[in-house]
Backbone:
């Protein structure tokens, strides 16, 4: 089989697998946020994800407590102290959430790569027949 015949077979196989409209791509297997969070607890890093969620809840409780102390402070020194504590805890919470979002994105990309590998294997089987 020469290269032109192979290209023609690939194009014809791709035409068979094409959706009817471009909107079919968007209505596919997209997961919502809760499915992605649930999937993050089923990966190899599940113990790290559990630790991060636990830490996030604990730090969020301290953050709320420091906000209450900030708004109930009476002296300037207390405002500065509780304000800095609140700000540091908030930055920590943001950092953890950004890391977790990247972790969910990584899991999603890995899942799509695996799907692509399966499609390529299926496509190779079709070409072999």
Residues:
């Amino acid at each position: 089989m020469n290269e032109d015949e192979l290209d023609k077979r690939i194009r014809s196989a791709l035409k068979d697998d094409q959706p009817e409209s471009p909107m079919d791509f968007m209505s596919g297997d997209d997961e919502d946020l809760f499915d992605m969070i649930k999937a993050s607890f089923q990966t190899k890093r599940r113990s790290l994800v559990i630790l991060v969620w636990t830490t996030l809840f604990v730090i969020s409780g301290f953050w709320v407590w420091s906000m209450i102390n900030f708004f109930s402070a009476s002296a300037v020194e207390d405002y500065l102290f509780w304000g800095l504590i609140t700000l540091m805890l908030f930055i920590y919470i943001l950092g953890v959430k950004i890391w977790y979002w990247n972790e969910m994105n990584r899991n999603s990309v890995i899942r799509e790569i695996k799907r692509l590998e399966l499609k390529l294997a299926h496509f190779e089987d079709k070409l072999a027949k």
Remarks:
- Confidence is low (pLDDT under 50) at residues 22-28.
- The CA atoms of residues 17 and 117 lie 15 Å apart.
- DSSP finds five helices and no strands in the chain.
